[in-house]
Amino acid sequence: MWRRLGFVLLALLVIGVIAGIIIKQKDGKGIISKGGSKGGEDEETEYFEQARIGDLKIVVEATGTTEPITDIEVKSEATGRITDFFVEEGDRIETGDVICRLDQRNQQLLVDQQEIVLKQARLRYDEARNATSETTRASLETQLENAGNQLAAARDNLQTQQQSFERIEALYEKDWATQQEYDNARNQLVSLRSSVASAEASLALAEQNLRAFDESSNDNSISLARLSYDSAGVQLAEARKQLGDSEIASPISGIVLEKLLDVGDSVVSINSSFSGGNTIIKVADLSRIKVRTYVDEIDIGKIKVGQNATVEVDAFLEKEFSGKVTNIYPQGVQAGSGLINFVVIIEVDNEEGLLLGNMTASVKIEADVLRDVLLIPLGATRAGDKPDTNIVYRLKEGGEITDSKAETEEIEVRLGDTDYYDIIVLEGLEEGDYVKVRGFETQIQFGG
User: 134-173 and 179-215 helices cross at what angle (nearest 10)?
Assistant: First the structure.
C-alpha cells in the first residue's frame, strides 16, 4: 500500500505544480493569483482540518474491455448449399428466427439411396431366416468329428513319445545316451502334451458350438444378415441427420456479431465425422455484459467475488453501469511494467443495450467499507525523517484554526488504509485534533 501511496503523493505534488503554472496574459489583462501577486504565481495553501470518526470506502480502480457473457457459433445439423440468407451483422434476432435456408437436393438423394440399401438388407435377412439350417448343422458335426479324431491322434502320439522318453531317460542315466538326445526327447514330450491340451480345447469348442446351434434357431448366416440390416439402418439414420431441417434457426436471442457464410456457400453438418461443421453466424446476447479487467498484485487481495462495482465507458461518460465481481482468475499474468496482474470478471446489467463488445471500460470495485475509523485528509501526512515513519502537524492548544500560520507540533502517526482522499490514523491522534493540510489553490481573473 505504501508504494502506491508514494505514487499518489508524487501525483498530488505534480498536480500542484501544474496548477501553479502562470497563465499568459490575454488582451493586455493580467491574471491575479491568490495573495494578490501579479503574473499568475500560485501560493501553496495551508489550512487546518479536524480528525474525525467516519467510514472509509476502499475502492480498487482498474481498466478492462467489455465482452458478451453469452456468445455462440451457429452451425447446422443439415448439409446443403445456402439459397437464402435473412440476417446481417448487427441485426437483433430472437430465439427461433430463421437465419438461412438450404438447398438439400443432393443430400435427399443420399437418403433415398440409403433407404434402398436398407430394403435390400432386409430382404437378405428374411431370406437367411427362411433358409434351411441342415448344411450348417452338418458342418458343425463334421467339425466335432474332426476335433475328436485330432484329439485321439494327439493322445496316441503322446503315449508313443512318453515310452520313447522313458527309454532315452534310462539310457541317459547310464551314460549310454547323450545330453542332446535326452533334451530332444523331453522337448518333444512337452510339445505333444501341449498338442493334446489344444486338441481337447478344440473338441470342447466344437461340442459347445453344436449345442448352441441346437438351442437356437439362428445360424451364422442369419446373424451376418442381421448385422448388415442393422448397419444399413444406422447409415440411413446418419443420412437423415445430415439432411436435417432446410431452415436454420437461431438457438438464442441476441445480436449478430459476424456473418461467416452467404448465399451460394456450402454448409457442412455438425454431424460430419471430419470437420464438425462450419460456422454460419456468431450471435451474442448483450443483455448482460462482462468486463474483463486486470487488477495488480498489490490490490488483488482486497477483491472478493460478490463485491459491487461501477463501470464507465468513454461513449457514455455521464453514466455509470452497476455490476458485481463474479470471477477472479487464480493465475496471474505479467504486465509490461513488471507487475503481476490478475484477471477479474465483472458482470454488468445491459438492459438498455448501450454497452457493446470490446469497449474500453474504467472499473471501480468497492473492495471494503471500514466503519467508525479515525480519518484525516491524505494531504495532512508527511514522510518522517526515520524510515517507514509518517508525521502530521497538529495545531497546538489554543491555536486559531482560521490562522494557517498558527503554531503546530510535529506528531508521529501510524497510518492505515486510504481511498487517496482520506487516510486512517491508527495511532498518534485523537478525534477532534486539528492537523495542517497543505494544498494548492488558484484564483484566476480574466480581463474583459
Answer: 160
The CATH number fitting domain 2-58+371-440, selected from 2.40.420.20, 3.40.50.10420, 1.10.3720.10, 2.102.10.10: 2.40.420.20
CB neighbour class for 311 (10 Å; exposed up to 12, middle 13-18, buried from 19):
buried
The count of other CB atoms within 10 Å of the CB of residue 228 is 18
pLDDT digits (tens, 9 = 90+) for 236-257: 887 777 666 778 899 999 999 9
What's the CA gap between 76 and 270, in Å, rounded?
A: 6
CATH number belonging to domain 61-68+285-368: 2.40.30.170
76-104+244-279: which CATH topology?
OB fold (Dihydrolipoamide Acetyltransferase, E2P) (2.40.50)
Q: pTM for this one?
A: 0.51
Backbone angles phi, psi at 212, to 5 degrees: -65, -35
Give the tens place of pLDDT for each residue, 252-277. 999 999 999 999 998 888 876 566 78
Mean pLDDT taken over the chain: 82
